[in-house]
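User: quick one, sequence for these tokens?
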């Protein structure tokens, strides 16, 4: 019986590392205060809030295109970073603006639910 290869967890994949490096470079280019290059949470928090919608759009596009090309590692990595961004930015109260979803060649705005 042949064992199937275990998928690489998104945070350990090369695709995840590349995405994190690009986000870190973006934050550094914007002169944001940064932690270690491998610290995803610190890198996400260093991104200015006016750039966060753009980051999410790019990650959603990467995930969509990777899925279409059957590049599951890249799609999982993009999804993992999206989920981390949502968690980090929500926990720091920075999700009160509309959220954009890429797809179907147009951008659609989805209002975020209010947290009371």
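Assistant:
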């Amino acid at each position: 019986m042949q064992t199937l290869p275990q998928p690489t967890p998104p945070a350990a994949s090369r695709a995840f590392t590349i995405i994190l490096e690009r986000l870190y470079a973006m934050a550094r280019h914007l002169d944001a205060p940064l932690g270690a290059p491998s610290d995803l949470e610190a890198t996400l928090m260093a991104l200015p809030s006016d750039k966060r919608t753009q980051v999410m759009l790019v990650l959603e596009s990467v995930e969509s295109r990777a899925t279409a090309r059957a590049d599951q590692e890249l799609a999982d990595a993009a999804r993992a970073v999206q989920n981390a961004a949502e968690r980090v930015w929500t926990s720091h109260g920075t999700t009160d603006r509309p959220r954009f979803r890429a797809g179907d060649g147009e951008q659609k705005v989805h209002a975020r639910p209010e947290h009371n």
